[in-house]
Amino acid sequence: GAVVSQHPSRVICKSGTSVKIECRSLDFQATTMFWYRQFPKQSLMLMATSNEGSKATYEQGVEKDKFLINHASLTLSTLTVTSAHPEDSSFYICSAATPGRRVGNQPQHFGDGTRLSIL
Amino acid sequence: GQNIDQPTEMTATEGAIVQINCTYQTSGFNGLFWYQQHAGEAPTFLSYNVLDGLEEKGRFSSFLSRSKGYSYLLLKELQMKDSASYLCAVLNTGTASKLTFGTGTRLQVTL
Of A25, A94, A32, which is closest to residue A57 (Cα–Cα)? Predict the structure, then answer.
């Protein structure tokens, strides 16, 4: 299998707070993890790609100092939204992959997502 | 860059058949994927096409024409629970599993 756990599922916090979201691959080693953001009624937008042991690659327009990504092990990546503001409220989804290895034809395996609400 | 386009919204009747189209422009094509996503949940994998033709899986089928940059997802015998967003996504060669998602289609199934 290829199970990905994302935590927390929902978080509500005050403006200015930093929020950390964890993404774990439970039964496989993920050399690559992806972080997406999704606004209501819109598609998934890739924010960044993280590879174990190296710096993340951010998509154009995504502030790397605002969205800190750490991928320190083959089973864990974290996204920290620093000094969050109401406009950062969104649904954040991670996915994990091992390039060259697919389970059930799937290139990525998704976590359940985190609903972030900044007051 | 890439353009992956889908209709924004569709409505269909329970028991009917609906076809959701996806057109794409990309270089180094290495497969097209369809996902279903219910509101507030993660995407669920439905199908994968890399060669031209039709892939059938139960009530769902997916078609690909690489020369036309075109795919569709066909849903038969629609059920109310099929109301969801449907996303097509393209995998490019040399991108280490990176997917580019289309704009997504919200399907509403009515009685």
Answer: A32
Q: How far is B6 from chain A (nearest CA, A)?
A: 11
**Which of B1, B42, B67, B49 lies closest to A108 in space, CA to CA?**
B42
pLDDT value at A27 more than 90? no
- List all residues 6 or more positions away from A35 whose beta carbon is below 8 Å from its beta carbon: A23, A46, A47, A48, A49, A50, A67, A69, A77, A79, A92, A93, A94
Nearest by CB to A97, which of B43, B97, B102? B97
For chain B, give the mean pLDDT.
94
* pLDDT tens string A28-43: 888 899 999 999 989 9
A56 in reach of chain B (CB within 8 A): no
B17 C-beta neighbours (distance < 10 Å), count: 13
Asked whether the predicted pLDDT for residue A100 surpasses 90, the reply is no
